[in-house]
Please model this.
Amino acid sequence: MLNSFVALTSLGRRTLPNLWDIIALCLVLGVFALAAFGWRGMAMPLEAPETAQLSLDYSALPYYGLRTTLRMFAAIAFSLLFTLVYATLAAKSRRAEMILVPLLDVLQSVPVLGFLSFTVTFFLGLFPGSTLGAEGAAIFAIFTSQAWNMAFSFHQSLRTVPRDLDEVAASFGLTAWQKFWQLEAPFAMPGLIWNMMMSMSGGWFFVVASEAITVGDVNVRLPGVGSYLALAIESKRIDCVVAAVVAVALIILAYDQLLFRPIVAFSGKFRVELSASQDEAESWVRDLFVRTRWLRVAAAWPAALLRRASLWKMALPFPAPRLPQSRRASVVFDVVWFAAIGAVFFYSLYLVFEFVRSAVSLDEFRHALLLTAYTMIRVIVLIALATLIWVPIGVWIGLRPRVAEKIQPLAQFLAAFPANVLFPIAVVGILTFRLDPDIWLSLLIIFGTQWYILFNVIAGASAFPNDLREVSANFRIRGFTWWKNVILPAIFPYYVTGALTASGGSWNASIVAEYVKWGNDTIEAQGIGAYIAAATAAGDYPKIVLGVSMMSVVVILFNRLFWRQLFGFVERRLRLS
Amino acid sequence: MPAHAMSAAAKAPLLELRNVFQAYGRSSGEKGPVVLDDISLRLDDGEIVGLLGRSGCGKSSLLRIVSGLARPSGGDVLYRGEKVDGPVDGVAMVFQSFALFPWLSVLANVELGLRAKGAREADARRRALQAIDIIGLDGFENAFPKEISGGMRQRVGFARALVVAPNILLMDEPFSALDVLTAETLRTDLLDLWVEGRMPIKSILMVTHNIEEAVLMCDRIVVLSSNPGRIAAEIRVTLAHPRNRLDPEFRQLVDQIYALMTRRAEPAKAREGTFPGLGLGMALPMVSTNTLAGMIEEVAAPPYDGKADLPALADSLQLEIDELFPVAETLQLLRFAELAEGDIKLTTAGKRFAEMDVDQRKKLFGDHLLAYVPLAQRIRRVLDERPSHYAPATRFREELEDYMSEDYAEMTLKSVTTWGRYGEIFAYDEGAQTFSLENPQ
Model:
């Protein structure tokens, strides 16, 4: 970038590092040191994973927090790599797209927590004798909660690169590699970064759930906030639970301030728009780095190197085919491709069918179906309840810019906060007051996900055009008419986005929320989530497969038949543009 | 003009198009409607050639074929005697939308073409700064595109094209996204550079729908007819630069081109596979009924009193031909006006329309719509024949797509829906995408 040029010339005048340099340097070195420190623990040979010593000492929490954070970053790095490869493949090849996109859609709807048992066994077998196996399993679990929406966003961006920019790239003869780094990746950046943030938020939930897992007799405990919490639950130490809550809150705050704010502020540069936008994202960390002198010079070298790499003429050894190949060859290839897809599909269908049939009776199947219905009712009722509560509040906040400015970050923070950290507190309450778990555990399902509804509604109400507000004031539209004809249609597109996210998250949460422990007490609600959780604890694989498949199918149907239709309606009728 | 024009390239023209033919591809593999038909054209050293035509005549497609960005369905493009089958090094393009990379600074945008080809960093920078200097962008090197005005952005577009030292500069309506004053400044600056020979280019091929712009800049104007695009005429402009818009000769040329472009198309030949005379395949432009009524009123009122000279009308209404012609032609189609020799003349119906009140206007409009627009006729007949008086829009859309591209079918259907609603000859439900006879009373 040009920055390197400017920084080098201005360096001549005053070469002393300024205060900002020192602060920023401390930050950077601190991050490096922490990473190195955490990694040593990760690669430590593992004598017996079951007996890894965890301490409930408060002073151990910072280290555990560090390990947990590292896991998060490892997972997001893998998700990014996956996104770049997978989405690019899907966007560049018509045949690959036919498979990859629907697959992504399914993966996105599958409750990944249900698969924890499989991945743990797989990864433990992959790295015998080292904690890396267990780490791998945990990182993979987080990865599965992060990667899909990032890949979706990236794929979407690649498909919508402005045509004129595409033509510029073609007319200058940019190679595929150059075009990817000069045009496609920058264009996709804002969407990708927003989705990365959402993914990171979602990931905290899974990191807490995946650090301490018991699958049958295999008992995995990785040093981290999640397992600290699990230990606190086992030992019935409510003070430690509170400490864990505080630790998680601090970590999330820190990563938001130190990492994502600067990145979002930076990504504003990549938005394709004609005029500088009014609300530039701000970040003190970015401002700090912009003010430094030495660090910017130091950063210029790698930046120039990266730039050179991005302009590397990595052309294919043969010229890319310009003309579509002969039609017949293409048709033959299509037939073969479809046949292959069909074969794989039917074979896997057969495998699942056989596996379930051999181990599960028809009664069991009916039982699981009934439980799925229970969970579904729970999700629907709770989303409705959250809607009734949060929509009016969100509208109230959103229409008052001053308030919205303060509340919005809070709502986003609450959405990122892993609700499962708070579960034990709720459980203690249920136990103490002898409440009905079927009702009161349900609330936990929506506990972490309701905030998506809130902050989307706030965003919608904030974006409500001022002239429409004035019109309704001018015509004295009030009360019920105002809600029905003015504000609800206006926020509905935002609400649908929030409710869809909340619904997806709630299904996943049901696996942890319907089956909770406090010391030796287990509280269980009737539902497919509890079914899966109990089967996991018992290591009963056929039941896990049955439960997870059942839930996946229902979630996919629910998305297709309900949310997708609603989205279509919103796109057609209610988009204010 | 560049002095070294006469050597090796003298044998073959700089650029030659031979019988270029372009049709929309259908996913099924069969050939769709024709966009460009039998275009042959040559571009020699030292000339500015303008492709003049209205939207839908395929002029932008032709430019993309020339630049190697698109491939014709038939015919050849030869650059210095060699067949073009991809973007060529000696050809650079300037885009209507500027097409700058928003995340790159002005300097980086200009450098990009050189860096992509593997030019050394220092070398690329030197040449980019030189181009920026020529085009008058000094001081803006570090700015990002969103910080600068439209005129400055298009200058970046020019600098980016010039820096790769092309032989041919292609321009796709480069001034049409700019306001009048900015566009004029840019045109003059570009012409000055060209006349003084300060640009490293041999020839310019530009696409425009602005007749005056074409006469102002070009040595040769190629007029394209629409649907499908064919070469309708070729006009040499021998006026010396700088040209004066008020020069009688200049005005005469403009009038001549207007007349040429409004000439009645010869009776449409029955195209193969369609129902001759049914006329369903007519693409309808997107023109609002308010604009139509406004135009009738304008022409009916003094000073025109029912007959207006199109260039004068375009001037007084501040309309480009791309906006003016569709309106005029829709009026002609509906028999409210006649076009001939660059004039628009109201018919008796047109004059009556001007004097009517709203309801009478709607009635007359509806009658004319049914009488003269085959698609409106067809929709109404289907609705009348069906006992339910309902018909899905897809049915007509698919029918239209036999004659035209999907985009045009969509636009045509939208136009007929708007007109039909205004004339109250049928109703349309957007949610259900159906036509019906029920007008909510």
